[in-house]
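Researcher: Please predict.
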Amino acid sequence: MPDSLRLALGTFTAVPVPAPRRVDRAAARGAMLWAPWIGLLLALPIAAAVALVRAATSAGPDAPDLLLAALAVAALAVATRFLHLDGLADTADAFGAKGTGPTQRERRLAVMRRPDTGAFGVAALALVLLVQVAALTGCLQAGHGPAGFVLAVVTGRLAATCAASAPVPAARRDGLGAAVAGSVPVRAAVLTGLAVLLLAAAVGAYDDPTARLVVVLPASVLLGAAAAAATSAWSVRALGGITGDTLGATVEVATTTALVATALLA
């Protein structure tokens, strides 16, 4: 197995794989380019299970959509070892760190290294998980739950690819952020994004005979990418670059935004 795929699976999933033999720029670039397709690998079995259970129960007003949405979000968290949620919590705590001037950046980075979770982190986790479950419930009730879930998960991992593109620096000299920051050429990130948009359009055409999702799902991908770009911009401004934690936050922000967009637009 290539080192890039080992690094991608180890970073984005709970799949037990051997550690990469070398973590160089080539492996980091490959891992970040693998990210959206690792997301597809994660999302498909969960979405299929949701679709099967929903078909086996009731597809009407009495369908257990809220329960299925909660289980799907929980399964995704377990499948990723809660890694991205942990990054979201640490980033939220850094956002709330007090201080002014040149020391604020160091204070925020120090907060992110702490093993505990503060009030900002707990609030961010609660809000994001609540919104994800509510949005997925809306998608299920509209009949597009599995499709919306799959594209949201892929969008979240595409956000990591974009966050690791060439103009974005690392906030530290060590850690995952330092390994992947600037490793993905802009052209490669753009081509990967276009491939995800084509996937979204194809899934929309398959899932919705009226072709409404052909527009909705690509639009959700774009909105998720925009939210991820805003998160990365904050990271660069407040921390001087990205870290492994801000990558996780970017994944969760993009996933949540794409789910919400699909629920509202579809």
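Model: The chain has one domain: 3-265.
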